[in-house]
Design brief:
By secondary structure, the protein is an all-alpha fold. About 80% of the residues lie in helices and about 0% in strands.
Length: about 80
């Protein structure tokens, strides 16, 4: 009887501690991670970020030799490295 009563009390303490600390865990770790993914990964994955880099590469590939030499001497203000 004592063992089952102590086991039940122990489970109650663990459950209470879990319910007490879970909002802090959500605020400190999970919510910032979700916000980071929403704001940064969506822009990098399949958004304008990759399309812009590919469009720039296609523009350079389609240049003639004269245009490419001029491009190398006068670099644009945005550097895509």
């Amino acid at each position: 009887m004592k063992k089952s009563l102590l086991f039940t009390i122990g489970k109650g303490i663990l459950l209470g501690a879990f319910l007490f600390f879970i909002p802090k865990i959500l605020l400190l770790f999970i919510i910032p991670f979700i916000l980071f993914r929403i704001f940064f990964f969506r822009k990098m994955k399949g958004g304008n970020f990759w399309e812009h880099k590919l469009a720039f590469a296609d523009k350079v590939r389609s240049m003639s030799e004269e245009d490419y030499e001029q491009f190398k001497t006068t670099r644009p203000s945005h550097n895509c490295r």
